[in-house]
Amino acid sequence: MRALRTLLIVVVILGGLFVAADRLAVHFAEGEVADRVRASEDLAAKPDVSIEGFPFLTQLAGGRLDEVKVGIGGYQAATGDGTTIRIDDLRADMKGVEFSGDFGSATAATATGTATIPYGELLKAAQAEPAQVGPGITARLAGLSDGGDGKIKVELEVSLFGAELPRRVSLLSSLAVRDDRVEVRADVLPRIGDVDLVESRIRAVSDFRQVIDRLPGGIRLDRVAAAPDGVEITVKGSDVRLAG
After folding, report:
1. pTM to 2 decimals?
2. Which residues fall within 8 angstroms of residue 118, CB to CB, at 6 or more apart?
3. pLDDT tens-digit profile of 103-128?
4. How close are the terminal C-alpha atoms of the chain, in Å?
5. Residue 91: what pLDDT?
6. What are the residues whose beta carbons fall under 8 Å from the beta carbon of 126, sequence distance 6 or more?
7. Do residues 134 and 145 make contact, with C-beta atoms less than 8 angstroms apart?
8. Neighbours of 121 (CB within 10 A)
9. Distance of alpha carbon 235 from alpha carbon 244, whole angstroms
C-alpha cells in the first residue's frame, strides 16, 4: 500500500509539472504569435491571441494547432482609393493552423470571424458633396444608424430653394455584400412635399457602396447586418495567413 501511495503521489506531481510546463509553453507561444501578427499586419497594438486545446505540447510537436483565436481592437482596412476605414473588435477563429518552428509563418486551413464598422466611419467614407435631386432641391448624406430588423437608417439633409433651414429626411436601406464591397440601397425613396424627386439623382446620394479590402490574413467579407453600434460584418476564409 505504501508503495502504491508513493507511486500515486509521484504521478500526481509529474502530472502537475506537465500541466504547468504545458501552460507556460502555451503562454510563451501566444506571445510569439501575437508579435508575429502585429508585425505582419502592421498593427498599432499587440492583438489578443489564444491558443486553444490541451495539451499544447503535443500540438507543438506535431507542427499543427487545433484552434487559434485572434482579437484586434481596431484595424485600418484599405478602401481601394488610397484611404482606410477603421474596423472595430475584429475577432477571428482559426482552425487547423500549421506553423514553422519559430512561428515565423503560420497558415490556418479555415477561419471565421466578426467585426463592426462604426456608423461614423462608414459615413465619413461615404460622405459626398450635396447633389441636386429635384428642381431647386439639393441633398446630402447626413447620418447613419440602426434602423432595426437588419436595416440601416439613412438620413438625408435636404435643402429646398428659398427655405431658410434644411430639413432631415429618413429612410430605411438594405445591406448586402458583393465581392469586397458593403452595399447600402434604399428600400423606398422619400418624397419631399409635392415634388417628385429624380430617382437616379437621389439614389446617387442615398445609395452607396464601400470597398473593404485587404483584411488580415486574406479573410473576406461574408455577410453584413445593421447593429446598434455600427454595421456588423462576418468574415471567412481558407488558407488564411496568420503570420509570415
Report:
1. 0.83
2. 86, 88, 229, 230
3. 778 889 999 999 999 999 988 888 77
4. 55
5. 94
6. 141, 184, 208, 210
7. no
8. 20
9. 21
